[in-house]
Amino acid sequence: MTLSNFANPLTARSFQRAADGLRPVTFTRGYLNKAFGSCLVEFGDTRVLCAATIDEGVAAWRKGSGKGWITAEYAMLPASTPQRTRREIHGQQGRSQEIQRLIGRSLRAVVDLGALGETTVTIDCDVIQADGGTRTAAICGAWVALHDALAVWKEAGKLRTDPLFGQVVAVSVGMVNGKLLLDLDYREDSAAEIDMNLVMNGDGEFIELQGTGERTTFDRGRLDAMLDLGQKGLAQLLDLQNQAIS
User: Fold this and answer.
1) Which sign does the torsion angle of CA 162, 242, 198, 229 carry?
2) Which residues contact 223 (CB under 8 A, 6 or more apart)?
3) What is the pLDDT of residues 79-135, one digit of tens each?
4) pTM for this one?
5) Could you give the CA distance from residue 179 to residue 227 in angstroms, rounded to a whole number?
6) Which residues, including other chains, have CB under 8 Å from residue 12's CB and lie 6 or more apart?
7) Tens digits of residue pLDDT in 153-180
């Protein structure tokens, strides 16, 4: 299988894009003036506000290690979906916990925690409008917020060297009605036979793969085709990130 099999235009897709097309993606840096770093990331109609906060010190289990920590929190705001999403004031749902752990793991893969020192960086990712791909959009925006926060921290004399040594991007891939699609919106994601989320660094190496046969199984050939399709979108997202921070 090759990408050419999936490049034919699909008139039903949002934003009149082809099977291998991303939704319009924008990164708005410095969206909040109280955060060390912040970014409003938009993938089509999905919008996630990412904000980075830096605190000196680490949790008790980390003290004395000389290393810092990167963590994340994720939430869907009440009006982000057609039917009101209830605030998770009585404990987070499993989905939110799983996504914020994914965001944290993804960011830690490109940070030298020793160079960070015993400092904690928290990235808050709040979905203000959801139309599929909220976790992948959050990872892309969280990296931009982290990049800017660490730059501020270094400028303040808190860092000797930049602990951030790479980029992180993420995108979804899926099979809908037998066709492989890049960057699924909610309508596509909810009908997908196969659903995958790919996280990659700036060197083209995968950080995490999440793939599920929602309504059908898939063989090695189909998996390879989805990875190829995903890598095409991930390369575009790396370029968009670079444009945003330049």
Assistant:
1) negative
2) 211
3) 999 999 999 888 888 989 999 999 999 999 999 999 999 999 999 999 999 999 999
4) 0.93
5) 14
6) none
7) 999 999 999 999 999 999 999 999 999 9
